[in-house]
Amino acid sequence: MSTISVIGAGYVGLTTSACLAHLGHEVICVDIDQEKIRQLKQGKIPIHEAGLPELVQTGISNRCLQFVVGAKDAVASSEFVFLCLPTPQEEDGRADVDALLSVVNQIREVVSPGTIIVNKSTVPVGTNTTLATAIRRDDVSVVSNPEFLREGAAVTDFLQPDRIVIGANDSKAGDRVAQIYESIDAPIVHVDPASAETIKYATNSFLATKVSFVNALAAVCEAVGADIDAVTAGLGSDTRIGPRFLQPGPGWGGSCFPKDMHALVRIATDAGYEFDLLRAVISANEQQFERIATKAERLLEGDLAGQNIALLGLTFKAHTDDLRNSPAIEVARRLAKKGAILRAYDPMVNSTSDIPSEIEIATTIENAVNQADLAVVLTEWPEFASADWPVLADLMKSPRLVDARNLLDRDSMIELGFRYDDLGRT
Ligand code: UDX
In this predicted structure, what is the pLDDT of residue 94? Predict the structure, then answer.
């Protein structure tokens, strides 16, 4: 059992705190937001993560998880200080590490000798060295320990990871960090810090590339008369490729892929290599948004002006309430620009606060499709797959649907009388 401070109570910090407490460590989760800490102390979780409320509640009841405002008091009694802070994308694509430097400056005088700072934030390659220099303490090490947590599956991904990456110059420090995870059954990849930082960007960029590849392949399947589900079944059975992240969709989004892709391009350019392959993937992703809008246009005989379109799904993927860089919003903007009138239903979105003004929010799927000229499935919510489509078809002015997630059964929808389009299925 170790004493651990986790600085930052966001998606990563909160999941890390609750899971480390679950592993038997004594954890203090720190944030600067007093209201957030007040809510967390009462077990109220501001994010939608399966299993997280239960872990937080258990941690609080077992007194191995507490929440405080401000880092100074917490770190003094900690053997490890995890940094789980935002590293937002700057205009030029670089990740902004100011939050990490600010915390390092705050805790420099109070961390105990032998403390290890463990950086979980996604940072430009070389930041480990920057932080080690900034702490100005020979008796404090900095280790890189990137996270691979998917939103909506963060607890599972933390407790059952494919691997744990530890980037350390000092092998003793690396081994001490590895011990934190000793009850997790997963290989530990010990590397140098720069490689650990690069692994994080490489993973997200490769996954985004895989998604864009399958989206482009779906367009090829449409052109040559092949079926994308059959193709990806054959493709994914190759163990060098694997079946996951081969699901066509409206494009990739979220708070990580876009940011990390631009950051890696920028890191490479700064280092003298033009990562044109990733630039092409970013551009292909933009084209995918356009491709979905064009499919809608085609089903409405080429003219969207004044047409009522029901958007089914706004979040960047199912099982989250996150709208950040959502492909659904990107497609909606393009439809609105072509003159469409938009009404959206998403089971996790009931306020217009983070939604473009062109989109009206419906409280049910029925309200969204009522009198619509066309519907577009943009997020793969199970609720849309199990909806009563015969009823919905009757509510629509005319049953037309673009299934941008290949969520529905093509033949059944056509049998219901839908003019139906999807991605690469025959
Ligand atoms: C991602 C990484 O998976 C995670 O390891 C990292 O720590 C954070 O970034 P997340 O942003 O939650 O996690 O989303 P993810 O589940 O990876 O999906 C990213 C985007 O790709 C979403 O827009 C999703 O809809 C899309 N996607 C994913 C597809 O279109 N098809 C797929 O097969 C998989």
Answer: 86
> Which pLDDT score is estimated for 92?
85
- pTM equals 0.96
In a domain, 113, yes or no: yes
- Ligand 1 pocket check for 252: Cβ under 6 Å: yes
Q: Is residue 294 part of a domain?
A: no
Q: Structural domain tally of the chain? A: 1
* Residue range of the domain that includes 13: 3-191
Edge-to-edge, what's the strand order for the sheet holding 3-7? 65-69, 26-31, 3-7, 80-83, 116-119, 141-144, 164-167, 188-191
- Strand intervals (E) in 160-314: 164-167, 188-191, 308-312
Q: Tell me what percent of the residues of the chain surpass a pLDDT of 90.
A: 94
Q: Give the model's pLDDT for residue 390.
A: 97
| 71 part of a folded domain | yes
Q: Residue 50: which of 159, 153, 157 has the closest Cα?
A: 153
We report the CATH number of the domain holding residue 91 as 3.40.50.720
**Model pLDDT, residue 408:** 98
Is the pLDDT score of 314 beyond 90? yes
- Using most ligand atoms within 8 A of CB, pick from 155, 241, 285, 317 the residue to mutate for ligand 1: 317
Identify the bridge partners of residue 30 per DSSP, sorted by sequence position: 7, 68
Is there a domain that residue 110 lies in? yes
Q: What is the pLDDT of residue 280?
A: 98
Check if 256 is active-site: yes
Which residues touch 364 (CB under 8 Å, ≥6 apart)?
Answer: 345
pLDDT of residue 293: 98
Residue nearest to atom 26 of ligand 1 (CA): 252
